[in-house]
Each structure stands twice: as C-alpha cells, then as structure tokens.
Amino acid sequence: MKLLRNTWYAAAWSRDVGADLSTRELLGEPMLLYRKHDGAPVAMIDRCPHRFAPLSMGKRVGDGIECGYHGLQFDCSGACSKNPHGDGRIPPGARVRSFPAEDRHGLVWIWAGEPSRADASLIPDFSHLVSPRLKTVGDEMTQKAHYELVVDNLMDLSHVNYLHAPYQHVDDFLQAKHDVVQDGSALESRRTVAGTRAPQSFRPFLDDPDAPVDYWLNIRWHAPGCCLLETGVVPVGRPREHGLVRIGTHIVTPIGAASTQYLYASSRNYRLDDPDADDETARWQQMGFHEQDKPMIEGVQTRMGERELFSMRPVLLATDAAAIRARRLLAAMIDAEARSDQPVPVAIA
Amino acid sequence: MKLLRNTWYAAAWSRDVGADLSTRELLGEPMLLYRKHDGAPVAMIDRCPHRFAPLSMGKRVGDGIECGYHGLQFDCSGACSKNPHGDGRIPPGARVRSFPAEDRHGLVWIWAGEPSRADASLIPDFSHLVSPRLKTVGDEMTQKAHYELVVDNLMDLSHVNYLHAPYQHVDDFLQAKHDVVQDGSALESRRTVAGTRAPQSFRPFLDDPDAPVDYWLNIRWHAPGCCLLETGVVPVGRPREHGLVRIGTHIVTPIGAASTQYLYASSRNYRLDDPDADDETARWQQMGFHEQDKPMIEGVQTRMGERELFSMRPVLLATDAAAIRARRLLAAMIDAEARSDQPVPVAIA
Amino acid sequence: MKLLRNTWYAAAWSRDVGADLSTRELLGEPMLLYRKHDGAPVAMIDRCPHRFAPLSMGKRVGDGIECGYHGLQFDCSGACSKNPHGDGRIPPGARVRSFPAEDRHGLVWIWAGEPSRADASLIPDFSHLVSPRLKTVGDEMTQKAHYELVVDNLMDLSHVNYLHAPYQHVDDFLQAKHDVVQDGSALESRRTVAGTRAPQSFRPFLDDPDAPVDYWLNIRWHAPGCCLLETGVVPVGRPREHGLVRIGTHIVTPIGAASTQYLYASSRNYRLDDPDADDETARWQQMGFHEQDKPMIEGVQTRMGERELFSMRPVLLATDAAAIRARRLLAAMIDAEARSDQPVPVAIA
C-alpha cells in the first residue's frame, strides 16, 4: 500500500488513548498508543525489536514500557532504557520506531513520515470539535474497504439522495450549483440550493419546518483522509450565520489495503444541551454510516476485489469531479514524495 | 479459472428468481438475477459501471434497475437509461454486461459466451422436471469444491456401494455390464444388473420387495456440468417402461475455483401424490447429498488443495472411465474455444 | 516449509491413538493414525491415491483400511490390497505413503525421512514419562505459530521471570550462572541459583518454604523439536537427588508454516498420589501454557507475519544464546540433509 508519509494521520479520538497501553492496526503497522504521566500521547510500533513480542502485552514502567516476554525496557522515544539480561549492556539497535504524536482538537494525531519534519501546525483544523458554541456527537468504526473508497463516498455527496433517502434527501440537489475549489492541497466541494424544502434531518429543529430555506452543503478534503463537512439551512435570503448548521468530522486512516479506520462526528450549533438532539444525531450516525454507507462501501470493495479503481475504467459523471480530483491530487502527492530527495522511512509496509 | 464460455449454465431454479433483485456468485462473477414484468428472467453483472456498487443494493424501476449509490438507471439489457447528474447525458461506456437468460424446464439458464451465439435450443433437455407423469422433489446446495470434482462424483456412480451404502447399495453392481457412450458433446455411462435384489431405496415401493429385478443406472453428462441420471427396477425380464423409475437432475455451475452451485432433484414415476414418498426423497437427498457426498467431495478438495487432478497423477481404475472421459472432453472443448477465432468475452475472470 | 526429514517426530500421545481411524495435520500433511490389532501404531498419508479422498472417512478392514469413496483397500504398509472394480487388478502405483511409527514412552513417534533409515534407538529419551517414581500430568495444544517460535520460548527460559511471574519467578535468575552445552545434535541450557528463595511453584510442597534453597533449571533440546526441562530445589548445599524435582516434557511437531502441535507434561518426584498436586500442575499448565505462553507466542507470530526471524534482524541478548544456537544447529542439519546424497522423500510438501 503506497501511502502519503509526510503528513498527520488521526490515530484515535483523544478520549480513547489513556495511560494504559493500547494497540490498533494503522498504516499497515501495529501501533502502540498510550499517554505519559504529563498526558502527552505516545505512538510507536507495537513490536519489541528483540523477539518481536507485542509491546502492548507488557506494562508501563514510568513513562516507558517493559516488554512482557523477556523484560527489555524502552523509553517513550522508543530507545531501549534497560536490558535485564547478562551484563545489562544495551545493544546498539535496540530501538522501537516511534512516531511524533500530538493531541489536537480532541484527536490524537501521528506523523507517518520523517520525524524531523513533523510540524504540528500542519495538523488540519478541526477546532470546531472543541468549540463551546457547538455540541459534538461522534464515534468510530472500521470499514472493510480501501480508505480512498471511503473518501470517494464523502467527496461525492450526491449519494445522500439515494443511499440516505429520505432522511437526508434534498430536493433539487443533483442540479444544484456545484463548485469544486482547490486550496493548496485541500479541495472543497460546495453545493447550494436556494429556496428549497428543508431536508428531514433539519425539520424537527426549525420553527416552521415548511418554510422555504436556503440550503448548503460543503465538504472540504485535506489529504490524505480528513474531511470536514458543513451543512446548513437558513430562511430564504438570510445570512448563513443565522442558520442551523452542522459541522461533520469524517477522518479516515488506512488500516490495511482493504480496511479503514473511520472517525466521525457531528457538531451542531443548535439545542446544545438537548439530549434528544444528541440522540437524534447518534441514531442518524448509526443508520447512515453503519447501516447505509458501510454495507455500500464494503460492497464496492467486494465488487472491486484487489483491483485499483482506474484500472477498472469507471464511468465518470459530473458528480465525480471532487472525488476524482482528490484521488489525482493524492496520487500526485504520493508520487512527488517518492521522487523527492527527502528520505521516507521504510519501516511502514 | 478456465471455463467453457459458449454454453448454457443453470443459474437457479426458476422458482427462486422473482421480481425482486437477487444476487449470487456464478462463473466467478457476482450475478444479478430478477424477472421483468412479463416474467422473463434477466441476468447481468451485479456491479454498476460507475463506482462499482452492487446493483442488487438498488431497486427495480420498471423493467430496469436503479443503482442505490448514486442513482444511475439501467434497462434490462444493461444499457444505462438515465443519468440523474449534471446535464443528464449518458456516458458512452455506461453499460452493465448482461447475459442471455432463459426459463426452461423449471430452471433459469444463462449463456456465458458471445451473446449473439446464444441459442435456446442448445439448452440440455431437462423436460422431465416439468412432466405431469413424474413427481419432482429437489433443492440446491453449495459444495466447497471445484465443479469437476462434483461431476466426477456423479460420473462414477460406483461410489453408491460405499458412500451411500446401505441405502443405495446394489448387489453385483461393481461387476455389472458398464458401457460408456459418447453422443456429440454428451457422454453416457450405462450400467445394468439383471436379476438382482432391489436396492433399499426402491423396496418400500415394490409390491414384492424380495422378488428379483432387473436394475439399471444410466447417467448422461452434458458439458460442462449437467447430469441426468436414470435409475430403475423392473421385475426380471419385463420392459423398463413397466418399472419404477427415478430421473435424477444434477446440475453444477461453477461459483469459483473451489466452490460450486449444485442444483439437484429426483423425479419419480410412482406414487405421484404420496407425500410420504416426497418425504422419503427429501430425506435421502439430505442424507446422501448433504451428509455423505458433500463431506467427501469437500474432503477431496481439501486433500487436493489448489492442485489440478492430473498433476497429482491419480491411480485410475476401470470405474473412472466415464468421469475421466468427461474431463478430457471438457478440456478439449475449452481448448478449442480458446483457439477459435470466435472472440470470447473477457469480462469474466 | 523446509523440515528435517531423517528424524522422529512425536505424532500424538499414545493414549490418543486407538483402533479407530483418526487424522491430524502434521509436517504439512494430513496424517492418518490408528493401531493394528496387535497394538502397533500405523501412520500414513490420509489421502487415497485413487481420487484423493481422506482415508479417515473410510473404515478399518482387518489391519488395513477401505476407502469410503470407491472402496479401494490398503494394508497397513500403505500397499493396495484390493481393487473391487472391473477385473480387480491392482494398479502399480496404488500405494499410500506410510511412515515408520513407534510407541515409545507414552508417545507415538513417526519417522519423516527415508524409511530404511528409521532406527528406533534414535528416538529421544523421554522414559521419565513412564517412570514409576514420577507422577506425570500432561495434555496437548495447538499453537498458531511456527514451531521454532515455540522452541525459542522453551530455550530462553528467562521469560519465566516476566511472562510467568509471579508463579514461576526466580530471584536472581537473570544473573544466574548460565551454561549452554552442545552434546552431538542436542543442546542443553543450564542455570543454577545457589541459596535463593524457593519459587512459588515449589513452596506448597516444601517442609519449610522460607528456608533458602539451591535452585536449578536445565533445558535440553533435541533437534528438531523435543525439549526436556528439569527444574528443582534442594536445601542449600544438599545433593540434587534429595530435592523436589519436576521433569517437563515439551515436544513440538510442525503442523504447517504457522501452526504447531505442542505436547506437554510435567513429571514430579513428590506427592505421587496426591490429586491436589495433580490439580496444581494442571492449573499451572492451563495458566502458563494456554493463557500466558500461547497468546505471547501467537502474538510474536502475528507481529512477524510471514517473515523469517533473521531477516527481521532481531536484537540479540545474552539470554538468546541457547535458542539462537538451536536455530543455527537445526538450519545446518536441514542444509546438510538437503546436500547429502541420501535421497529424501519428496512427497511431503
């Protein structure tokens, strides 16, 4: 699996990484995750360089870890700090590959490339997740599909009118104004429908559900797998800041060639303290993501097998513009990285 | 998997294909099956040419279908009939590969080769399945084995004296007169035992179960996987048309390299309206096919792994004559097809 | 999988091989095991040379077997003894590969190499298993790991201080005197700790559990996978024959590339008739082997995937001496065998 290396990937929701050792497969590698006593996240390959035991089967010792098989200790940088055997000398190669890790906006991010190039300011902006003016409900799931198929799903939101109908159906949506705008390595797809019926997912929260609204749906992709979706309705002609708005967080991280970690959330600017609105969101995420998107995306993966998308010569439509452009941008970035003189770590398969 | 292409394969029992979209893996492909409003069967690849979604996750629209992911519509020939996106123009390649399909004798048949060569008169004759003078009981199963291993099982019926004893055991069967006769691309194996004890499977239906009978067992193979088995007993010296006769239907269709769809039925010329005789047949099919043949054939597949039969240099016996000849005939037909200037579709893996 | 061929492998505990046909995967082959009427064990490939049916689905006929598919019979040497078909002539190649098999010390051993070289005196000495002066408790399990990873676990017993702590923890163990001694193709690792605290596993059986003891732990490896572990405690300065001693039997036989049959037992020289001591042993084996070793060894296999140990450049420590030497010895033996002019049977994959 060719991956973009010099970039941040979301490893987990911050709340799911604690002092205890945990492990998850990410980027084709077993990833050990935990926090130091000062709360800083630690990420390293979950494999002892001695006899390749999973370090997650060992235990915490200070801010480091002790392998549970033969007792080698490593500090949180991955360097061996104690060899309990023989003369106790630490062999030169006794080191676990670690990854720069950062907590940001409720997520733990890891840098998959050259550590010296890890720059936390490059982490995409998901600050809405921790905004006091929004209420966020989210969770995670695994999709048994290549991560680009999940991105395709997100970057072509015309599917809401089919796969997610009637709950997310938007009248006149497929003929709506649609702009695809590139912004550096980010890409944004923007659709607006003026003077339409409010979609079902907003109606319970509108004073007059039957009054016509202006509707918008923007999705912003940040390579390789971070999407931020903004959708809103506002009474016709009013400024968007007066509207009901939801910011969707959709972040995919490759697990393997046909397996993807998918972190998702929805942050709303209305009824912040209403548990019924929380429930409504959780119900929709269960239905929309788990019962509708997941079987469809995994069905596509099954139908593609191990073949690559373009090798199958897909019939492309107007609605594919953003998704295809994102794929091509990403492929160009991966190629550029491979050609660059920046050495890219080879440990990741 | 090399398959004979310009031939009819049984896709399903007719009763199992209805107006609703259904899907089954056949010939290494996901096959979408349904019926038009006029009842005619439709078969096409269950994969949208746009983003490769399973069409079976969509819905019927008239005699065609609508993809459940992004809403492309296809008519029952597989041609795209509606693009709901952008300007609605239908892209040139927007077409699903469909297969000529025919209802015949209670089965839905599909033509795996060049569509223009599909000739319904080439469908092998299983008209006994719908004969009012016979009562038919049958079902289907999946064998986790290469389809030729299932054909081998059928074409060497000496196994009834071991695997299916005592219920189907026939005295003097292994030394019985045995002829193997080729008839075009069909092959028939005929065994007769004169003046023997009626096998247990016939005894409950004979006036005098202990009276000696003439017994016969013929099996006719039609490439690549259709077998018709006739077995009967008649009082010694009487013409066969006075006997108790059962016509067995055994039709295998490759699913994948080690997976086979097996449609089976037994049609009897006695006690047509006797539910006890129906039950007797269903019990035997459960025992004989599911509990005896299936574990044995799948055991053979396990013992062979991915190896091809002849590469393992099997020790061949007199009783293998028909099965081996069928294998060689089929191999020659597949080779001839590959060499012919008739272009064979390549979409099937 | 390259295996040492001209050697004995343990196929099963003798008590688990009876008159009935049984089958287990060993050495990459399905192995049919049963006993003749005189009790002698029989081992042959569980695959009929006719149509490759599992012979274990057939039945015993005298000291031989009858294939359950088409009725070929084989004697206990694997030679075809009856062909019920046609003229009954036995085809020249109708032979099942059989293996010299011996009952010895409560185990059934099979010779994987050239049959004429099978010499029962080469079976490693596990006579303690049947000694009247010891009480033995044991069982078997499957490890989803390459057999050398299980040998590594046994040949580096420093892991008891981590993986099996506190029950098997030994004070001062990692700095204990440690000798690795080669004896022909056997290798022994010996550790002694003078004047230490008795480990928890011995304390319930000592008159004064708190009195200091001399402790020893020797493990002897006999290529390719037979280990004999002796551990004991004795009051300081007394001869070992006055001590509490346990002889561990740890015999691994490859099933496949990442699957190993592991036969284990513990034979103690104390409280021979005490069922509580039996229970104590069985509890420890369950905890130590099934709940501690197995997940760790299988975790290592998972982290290694299909890679070979040395190709991953493990960081080696003083404690690895015996295990690495055993690996190198075995590799040299396999290489020597491959280079020898002794023909090695090729039937085993």
UniProtKB/TrEMBL annotation, chains A, B, C:
Coiled coil: none annotated. SUPFAM superfamilies: Bet v1-like, ISP domain. It holds the Pfam family VanA_C. PROSITE patterns: RIESKE. Keywords: 2Fe-2S, Dioxygenase, Iron, Iron-sulfur, Metal-binding, Monooxygenase, Oxidoreductase. Gene3D superfamilies: Naphthalene 1,2-dioxygenase Alpha Subunit, Chain A, domain 1, Rieske [2Fe-2S] iron-sulphur domain. It comes from Paraburkholderia hospita. Residues 8-110 form the Rieske domain. This is Aromatic ring-hydroxylating dioxygenase subunit alpha. GO terms for molecular function: 2 iron, 2 sulfur cluster binding; dioxygenase activity; metal ion binding; monooxygenase activity.
